[in-house]
Amino acid sequence: MNHSIRNSWMAAVAMFALLFGAISYVQVIGAGDLNDNPWNQRAVLANYCNDRGAIIVGGKPIAESVAGDETCKYQRSYAQPELYAGITGYFSRTYGSTGLEQQLRDELAGSSDQLFLDRVSQIFLGSQPKGASVELTLDPVIQKLAYDLIPDGQRGSIVVTNPKTGAIIAMVSKPSYNPNLIATHDPAKEKAGYDQINQVPGINLNQSVSGPTGELLAPGSVFKLVDTAAALSSGKYNKDSVLPNPDSLPLPGSSASLPNYAGGNCSTRNTADFPFALEQSCNTPFASIALDLGQQAIADQASKFGFGQDFGDQLKLQSAVSIFPKNLDQAALAQSAVGQRDVRATPLQIAMMTAAIANKGVQMKPNLIKTVRAPDLRVISEPKAEALRTSTSPDIASQITQWMTDVVSKGIASGAAVPGVQVAGKTGTAQLGDSGLNNSWFTGFAPADDPQVAVTIVMEGVDVSTGAKLTSPNAKKIFEAVLNK
Amino acid sequence: MILAITTPKPRRNVELVLLVLALAVGIGASAMVGLNSPAAFDGDFWFQSSLLIVAAFAFHMILRFRAKYADPIILPIVVALNGLGLALIHRMDQPGEDTGNNQLRWTLLAMAVSIVVIWFLKDHRLLRRFTFISLAASAVLLVLPIVPGISAGEVLGASVWIRIGPMTFQPGEIAKITLAIFFAGYLSSNRDLILLAGRKIGPMQLPRFKDLGPMITAWLVSIGILVFQRDLGTSILFFGLFIVIIYVATSRISWVVIGVILILGGGFLASRFFSHVAFRLDSWWNAFTPEVFDRSPGGSGQIVQGLFGMADGGLGGTGLGQGRPDLVPFANSDMIVALIGEELGLIGLFAVVMLYMLLFTRGFRAALGARDAFGKLLACGLSFAIALQCFVVIGGVTRLIPLTGLTTPFLAAGGSSLLANWIIVGLLLMISNTARGPVDTTPSTHAPTEAVQTS
């Protein structure tokens, strides 16, 4: 009988051997697939319930994890939510995440490679995963100022950068929204918040990008800086060139024509030099340059400024790619040369172009991240200023800078002038169909001889006088605020 | 087999030391759960811990008095498992729920009943007298859940519960013991008859048809449980219990072959005719098919969620109180193994499975040492039942085999299961006591001593 007892025991042991195998399979071999399974809410919930790192501006968190309810230990919370929504994005269980919350998810969740050792120690200490905190380059005072300079109800964006380092000092857009509304763990509140936000005209949370990095707008006359750089680098034009300046340029191959702006001083001269053409923002001289150089030259220069290119690896925000169209006929080329027709640029792209001119032709990588710190405050990354691409030569950059200072001191951007400081600038007015409304632009930097700050402002769907009030004078306020710091 | 050449040693002090370690496991787990919840070390923690300590030492003292040669490892293993179970169930308690304290009450009651069994039974061979009473009791216990008035109705698809006042009870758990007593008693008396008669075909000695009677009966009982109570797990358990006892009694592998054929046949028929069995098979085989995952009832959501939890736990686990077992339905009962896998990881779950392996191994050890056929069969049957129950539960949770509703002994929430398993522990301790103790040379007054086959 003992023999069969031993056999029974061996049968039981064999069953247990199978169990050890099955457990090993589930917890080791199959674990990866199970963890990645789309039905597996654990990763999502872990993400949404864990103590994520904070996003910090000026020493204060603008996004942080606070104590949550019974379903989740931690709850994401945004301070000054509307002011920073375009940067932080949102972090929602149902609707996913956007902005830095999405692009820095590994750092904030503590799952990035640099935090590997921290995770190992967490396994042994059994403590909650805690993510790295990220300090941004933004200046909270300038950010607030810029945000307040866009009136409520007005669609618009402002980008303030340091052209020498690429650091973004402020980046705002309106309308904005409160990401706290969809960061709640209560599904009903979350849904209500989502619907409430999406009701606001101009906000669509389904879009992956929006605001300064995402909205593709007709740049209008600020695009003339591209024409100018293309003209000077072609060798066919120099600072003394005399450009044709008819009131209206018949568009080749069509019955239409491209007029100069009727209200300004362009009509006072039949020919113009660069300073006059830029100061008064005449259309026909730049259209004729484009027709002369051909679309390839304009497209190449646009590309060197960043059209059709990415913004580098330090921005950490999803961004739309600006467009200079291809295969243009002559009429379309003439219209595109003045930033109309199908040319599209994001506010950040225009800011980058201006920053390249300010920085002797070298475009720096736009950068939002000052430091990333592990939970123990150890710095795990600190992006250095890095050149992104060369947009033009230092000579051409300084020539354009000189003309841009004239635009502010003598031309139509005089509202941006700051007493005692040389400001370089360029305005733009892009017509929106036949509505009579425009996208009104200002882009510029100061001081012209040693640029500390570049400002790009666009107000969408405004009439000419409103646009004039909301762009150059606001740029002046930002210049003053940054330079007086 | 040569026994008792050396002087038997009680080893009660070894048990005492191991018991302290076992209590450290349970109370340590409880402390970790406390650390990770807002109410760290509240009154509950101290109250529960002291009660568990008092009960464990009381049990130990009873063994010193009444069964001083009992296996010194069994009690510590069971206390460790039960203590861990208490901590885990307490961990799953939502505010307002009291499953943890309820489990503690049942633990104390079950230990008390087990002590009573040890105190009054004195010798396990007494139970052999109750062979046919046990059969009758089993029948009654198994029928109770479908008797109108006392039945608790269909709970989660199975009718295995009865209601006594505010409490529910699963009589099938106790029937596990009474059936083991019946099988062991019947076969220890009749095995010669079964062994010697029958035709031989090739190497296989086939039993006579009339000797197949008990097996057919056991098969019908199992199928009956499956059909009328919709309880696949218990049905497999009872049949497995019977097969192992008849195999050990006769040493004939032919019984196992016939048994396996019967169970496969029964399983095949059941899967063709009963939707709940078919659903179980389907949710096992096609667990990751969307229609099966979402199906309600009978979907694979529970098993898949358990697998997700275990995968998340990985090697080291998330730490007690750090996982999300709330996503797994019945994480404190049927799926408590998944909870262990998630929060204690592969390492923790291996340790627990290892404890079960040690436990049933000690049971088989008692069977080997027992000097009467009845004791051998009973110890062997009960030990194998523990192993089989663990296999069915853990195999189900890990998707090795289809998931069936059985409790994980000592760990899962559930009073009837605790009570039954503590009684089993009491019986194993008693059998091991006679097995390890000095040979009793006085003629037994209770039962005729049998010749023990020492093959």
UniProtKB/TrEMBL annotation, chain A:
Pfam family, one: PBP_dimer_2
Domain of life: Bacteria
Penicillin-binding protein transpeptidase domain span: 156-479
InterPro entries in the record: Beta-lactam/transpept, Beta-lactam/transpept-like, PBPA_dimer, PCN-bd_Tpept
Positions of the Penicillin binding protein A dimerisation domain: 52-134
Alphabetized SUPFAM superfamilies for the sequence: beta-lactamase/transpeptidase-like (SSF56601)
PANTHER family linked to this entry: PENICILLIN-BINDING PROTEIN 4B, PEPTIDOGLYCAN D,D-TRANSPEPTIDASE
Protein name in the entry: Peptidoglycan D,D-transpeptidase FtsI family protein
From TrEMBL, chain B:
Compartments, record wording: Membrane
Keyword terms, alphabetized: Cell shape, Membrane, Transmembrane, Transmembrane helix
InterPro entries (alphabetical): FtsW/RodA (IPR001182)
Record Pfam families: FTSW_RODA_SPOVE
Domain of life according to the entry: Bacteria
UniProt protein name: FtsW/RodA/SpoVE family cell cycle protein
Tagged with keyword Disulfide bond: no
Transmembrane segments: 16-33, 45-65, 72-92, 104-121, 133-162, 174-197, 209-228, 234-250, 255-274, 335-361, 373-398, 410-431
Keyword Transcription regulation recorded: no
Membrane topology: Multi-pass membrane protein
